[in-house]
Amino acid sequence: MRPARSTAAIGCLVAGAIAALYLWSGQGRSERPLMPNATVMELLSRADAGNGARLFRQCAACHNISKGAPDRNGPNLYGVLGAPVASSSPRFGYTHALRSAGGRWDAERMNAWLEDPQRVIPGNRMFFPGVTDPWERADLIAYLGTQGSTLLPSPADRGAQGR
Ligand code: HEC
């Protein structure tokens, strides 16, 4: 009797400790250090695309991102990372500001855009206040990278780079 009960008690303790550890580790961005001088690529190497998918809910009010899905208030964003600006959805009526901006959506530019779209391309029609947390922007970019884009290496490729 007694040994069985104490085994159960130890089991509970272990389960509790594991749960606490799980909650404590890497669950929230708040656990990640502030790295004011880090480049976007440095943040991206430790970004969490799964969290980016959750954060994308704030974008989903205006953007679809699955292949072939219709535009909303904003263009479908499938494959946008790495693509030329104003091209992710050819049928979308982009503003002149966006169409004449030129260049591509590399990670640095996307990072600046997500922080403050009106500063990066003045006069565009994406009325969105911007994402202030650099880790959240990195997570969002990592998520965009998983949606039809080949710009970012997948985590598996990154692991294989040393071989
Ligand atoms: C209130 C609606 C709205 C929200 C919310 C919004 N966007 Fe947009 N977005 C737009 C519109 C409208 C455009 C097109 C702007 C133009 O043509 O001037 C756009 C354009 C873009 C583009 C450029 C697409 C291209 O083909 O060049 C990207 C990238 C983008 N949004 C990403 C995001 C992300 C990521 C989020 C969430 C963090 C977000 N947007 C939130 C409305 C929105």
From TrEMBL:
It holds the Pfam family Cytochrom_C. Residues 47-148 form the Cytochrome c domain. Keywords: Electron transport, Heme, Iron, Membrane, Metal-binding, Transmembrane, Transmembrane helix, Transport. Gene3D superfamilies: Cytochrome c-like domain. This is C-type cytochrome. The chain crosses the membrane at residues 6-25. InterPro entries: Cyt_c-like_dom, Cyt_c-like_dom_sf, Cyt_c_1A/1B. The keyword Electron transport applies. It comes from Pseudoroseomonas ludipueritiae.
